[in-house]
């Protein structure tokens, strides 16, 4: 969903509820300035935090589940 900064400010609570279902892109003067994402579903950051730090005796799935449960 794309909303203007003015609309976002006027209805912050509404958009905080909606972010659980979809990302929200905020624009100002027609330019994208921010993206609001549900932290529990931000898989890119989770993946980046796992790359290169796992010992060889730990599976990616085990560590992924452990980190997701900490959120």
Explain the overall architecture.
There is one protein chain. By secondary structure, the protein is α+β, with helices and mostly antiparallel strands. The chain has four helices and three strands, in the order E-H-H-E-E-H-H. The chain has helices spanning 5-10, 12-18, 43-50, 60-70; strands at residues 2-4, 24-28, 31-36. It has a three-stranded mixed beta sheet with strand order 1-2-3. A hairpin with a 2-residue loop joins strand 2 and strand 3. The longest helix has 11 residues, at 60-70. The chain is elongated, with a radius of gyration of 16 Å. The protein starts with a strand and ends with a helix.
Summary, kept brief:
This protein has 71 residues and is α+β, with helices and mostly antiparallel strands. The chain contains 4 helices and 3 strands; from the N terminus they run βααββαα. The chain has helices spanning 5-10, 12-18, 43-50, 60-70; strands spanning 2-4, 24-28, 31-36.
Please write out the topology.
Blueprint: E1 2-4, H1 5-10, H2 12-18, E2 24-28, E3 31-36, H3 43-50, H4 60-70
Parallel strand pairs: 1-2
Antiparallel strand pairs: 2-3
Features:
elongated
User: Uncertain runs with pLDDT below 50, 5 residues or more?
Assistant: none
Task: Tell me the total number of β-strands.
Answer: 3
Mean pLDDT: 85
Secondary-structure class: alpha+beta
Share of residues in strands: 15-25%
* Widest β-sheet, arrangement of strands: 1-2-3
Order of helical and strand elements: EHHEEHH
The helicity comes to: 40-55%
> How would you sum up the major sheet?
3 strands, mixed
Figure out the total of helices. Answer: 4
Rounded radius of gyration (Å): 16 Å
Shape descriptor reads elongated
Give the end-to-end Cα distance, rounded to a whole number of Å: 25 Å
């Amino acid at each position: 969903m794309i909303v203007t900064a003015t609309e976002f400010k006027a209805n912050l609570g509404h958009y905080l509820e909606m972010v659980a279902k979809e990302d929200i892109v905020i624009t100002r003067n027609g330019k994208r300035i921010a993206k609001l994402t549900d932290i529990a579903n931000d898989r890119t950051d989770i993946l980046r935090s796992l790359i290169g730090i796992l010992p060889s005796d730990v599976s990616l799935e085990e560590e992924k589940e452990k980190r997701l449960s900490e959120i």
